[in-house]
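Most newcomers find our protein records easier to grasp once they have seen one. There is nothing in a record beyond a sequence line and a structure line. Getting from the letters to the tokens is the skill we practise here. An example says more than a description, so a record of this kind follows:
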Amino acid sequence: MKDWTQVRKIIKSGRDFVVTSHIYPDGDSIGSTLAFLRLLGAMGKKSAGIMPSPVPKSYRFLPGAGALRTYRPGLDSLIAAADAVFMLDASTNDRLGELDAATRRLGVRRVCIDHHPGNTVDAETRAVDAGACSTAQLIYELYGACGRRIGRAAALALYTGIHTDTVSFNFLGTNAVTHEIAADLLRRGVDPKSAWLEMYGHDSPRLLKLAGFTLAGLQTAARGRIAWMTVRERHWRRLRVDPRGTESFTRYPLTIHGVDVIAVFCEEGRARIRMSLRALDRTDVGKIARSFGGGGHRTSAGALILAPLDTVVRGVIGALRRERRGR
């Protein structure tokens, strides 16, 4: 359990706050942000959610998601007037996108709340706990530390954050506490079936066709222990699919017997590759991702790499081979 004394002092002494998270927001970053905004409101504070990237369509079902703004320079006056900017679920400064430079330029106080190991975000106040399964877990704990009740909307946001970051309560530090928190959130009004359908029940036939093209090119290494796939730009353009939706493709090789490490390389443009890594064994894919300029956890990580696809694949698969041999 974190010591929330400093964070509580900042909230108590301030009046206006900005809450943000990382670029290409996921369920944990969005869920944590929305739940934290509701906590601030319950404590009588003014707050605004400003994200460095647009909220994906798959998370717009969350109450309050429509009020989250995407950063633009015209919002600088709002940020400058804040008593502090809370940066949630971001592990490095560059993961904050343009908001990193903006908050520095405007001289606003920065507060980091995160669960990624090796967090290097520059902030005057830091509440980082790599033992937490998600940043949503930390915001759940902060509600208790502030003596505030979690309403139904906040419960759904927190449940979404935990559910998505643990890959349906299977990875990333899932333990008894994780399930105890989930049980509490269900008691507060979350319906697990409808939540699951909102989170995952929106794949289009075109996305599944793209998955078929991608799976047809699946390859393995290290005697079948490493499996990887490449999403070609020509395929997602022809099918008119948003390449950000291919993040979910990492789930498909999880069912292959003997596979311990999964890699998906999405060609988002010429010499622009988005890499997603997952590990079922002790391979530290977070370490690999950081070596390529990305970040993440030991079991789940990623990076945006500006290099040709073949170069990226050779480099990453080689690094994964070496990491497995070194264990």
Summary: The mean pLDDT is 93. The chain is about 40% helix and 20% strand. Residues 309-325 form the longest helix (17 residues). The domain at 5-200 is CATH 3.90.1640.10 (inorganic pyrophosphatase (n-terminal core)).
